[in-house]
Design brief:
Length: 218
């Protein structure tokens, strides 16, 4: 391995800067989907409150997408906390993740405009693809042994399960949306307890890994 390539494989600042920038822009674009209400001719400003109230779905979609993209950013950060070095595969898989992240504002607009079977399925499908791409990135990095030493196989597995949990829930919700879009939307609440349990197990596993690495061999 040449010296230049060795340096390139350990340099992640530009990769992370690009990722943070794309995610920040995607989050910012979400708010542009919320339209300023127009007061009908002959009406007073008093009707503005009712007009804003009728936009509840736009606000709901914004908040949901904001927190989902934010959550994916947290998971993305977790990936690169544990990655010691990278190769071209990591770079391209990271770009794939950013490709889907950049598409989330459009999916959010579709969900806002068509909050029926199609809109919910399209939105859930896009969020699922985003999550699967991040899972693929972690799986590739761990399989190629690009992650830091000291992580047990259990920790790597729990981390993979945490990455996989969200897209699986979104896929299931897309299937449920074919029968009842409202129940499909409510199923997204499963993300809270599932990720909470996996996060607790991950923290415990990381603490065990640190304890094992700190224990001197006999």
């Amino acid at each position: 391995m040449s010296l230049s390539y060795s340096h390139e494989s350990t340099e992640t600042d530009r990769l992370l800067a690009l990722s943070d920038g794309v995610i920040a822009i995607a989050i910012t674009l979400l708010v542009l989907d919320i339209n300023i209400p127009t007061i009908p001719a002959g009406s007073t400003v008093a009707v503005l409150r009712d007009l804003i109230t009728k936009q509840w779905q736009e606000f709901f979609a914004y908040l949901l997408s904001f927190f989902v993209v934010g959550f994916y950013w947290v998971l993305h950060r977790r990936v690169f906390i544990h990655i010691d070095r990278h190769n071209r595969g990591v770079l391209w898989l990271n770009l794939l993740f950013l490709l889907f992240v950049g598409f989330v504002p459009y999916a959010t607009s579709m969900f806002t405009a068509y909050p029926d079977q199609f809109g919910v399925t399209f939105y859930a499908g896009m969020l699922a693809l985003t999550g699967f791409s991040l899972t693929l990135l972690w799986g590739y990095a761990s399989r190629k042994e690009l992650i830091e030493e000291g992580l047990t196989s259990l920790t790597v597995g729990i981390q993979a399960a945490r990455f996989l949990a969200s897209p699986v829930v979104f896929v299931l919700s897309a299937i449920i949306a074919m029968f009842d879009p409202t129940i499909a939307i409510l199923s997204w609440l499963l993300l809270l307890p599932i990720n909470s349990v996996l996060e607790s197990r991950l923290v415990a596993s990381l603490e065990d890994s640190l304890s094992e690495s700190a224990t001197p061999p006999h």
